[in-house]
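ok here's Amidohydrolase, seq below lol
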Amino acid sequence: MSGLVAVDGVRDGDGRVGEFWRGLGLPGLIDVHTHFMPERVMAKVWAYFDAAGPLVGRHWPIAYRFEEDERLAVLRGFGVRAFTSMIYPHKPGMARWLNGWAADFAARTPDCLRTATFFPEDGVAAYVAEELAGGARVFKAHVQVGGYDPTDPVLDPVWGVLAEAGVPVVVHCGSGPVPGKHTGPEPIARVLARHPRLRLVVAHMGMPEYVDFLELAARYPRVCLDTTMALTDFVEQAAPFPRAERGRLLDVGDRVLFGSDFPNIPYGYAHALEVLARLELGEEWLRAVCYGNGARLFGVG
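and the structure came out like this:
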């Protein structure tokens, strides 16, 4: 099955999304990796993808390029019961503003898990504490786009308070689609060595260093992997998941979480689910990945 689709308003297989989760006997889906941002920020992100910017590295059409209300309607139409607003700053002074927007968005969007972010800068520990006190349920850190070292001393108290609070932090720390100065398993492994109770969710399964991040998950019982874009035809062309290692996803099956990268994906949403079934790891594993693990992690009924 091809994951490539036209993006002129007709996406491949949208109608199959509901069939997928109903066939597993699930009440819907939990998607831990979706992007909702201030409109002008989202427009800049899309422009970067359209230009195949240096952190993208290839042609990348946006399949769900709609206004915010329509994007929400599409996601809910898929049966997604809970999702996130993955925001991320690329410079100092941006995170507080993004956090304010995300808090407002979650307040008016009850099925969105309130999301927050941070950047290595003066005052970061204080505003992360404020977000936790205000009810943030998940954080996002983007080492690649931010271009920062996660072991920066100014972030040490941030990782510490997140570990103590037990609030998940989704971190883009793998080197895909293009390596960054501080991407790869080594920097974030040093963070985990200092904060072993951190509820780290490795975005994109750590693509392309899948095996290294599987080993981190085996070593640290609170480390999770999100499936975002991993195993799709689009990614397998450039960064294939080692076939011999696929069975190890069963070993950490209670800590694999479905993520899509909606709306910024170059294929239909159904493809991100169907490639998981293609692994043939069993329906119990699929039910856990697509709903049960996220429900337990975030306390979703």
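fwiw Strands lie at 29-30, 80-84, 112-113, 115-117, 138-142, 169-172, 200-202, 224-226, 256-257. kinda neat tbh
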